[in-house]
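Title: Comparing notes on inverse folding

I've been comparing how different people in this forum approach sequence design from structure. To keep things fair, I'm posting one structure and asking everyone to reply with a full sequence. Here's the target:
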């Protein structure tokens, strides 16, 4: 995934459909973070944390993910 190909658009590969929900959300949020936060990896992740309270984490292969939690009783 990447941004800046088209203004305000997150581009993704068709292979993304095979990713886990946690990874897909992490990647999309990270790329959206570039749009609202800036060009560096830190800027992107920090902007998501500051605006939405969602920490973006990195797996062993340096791919972003978010932990999916549920508040359902």
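Reply #1:
Here's my take.
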């Amino acid at each position: 995934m990447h941004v800046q190909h088209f203004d305000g658009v997150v581009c993704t590969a068709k292979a993304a459909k095979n990713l886990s929900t946690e990874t897909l959300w992490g990647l999309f949020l990270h790329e959206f973070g570039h749009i609202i936060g800036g060009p560096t990896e830190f800027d992107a992740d920090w902007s998501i944390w500051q605006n939405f309270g969602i920490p973006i984490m990195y797996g062993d292969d340096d791919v972003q993910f978010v932990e999916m939690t549920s508040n359902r009783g």
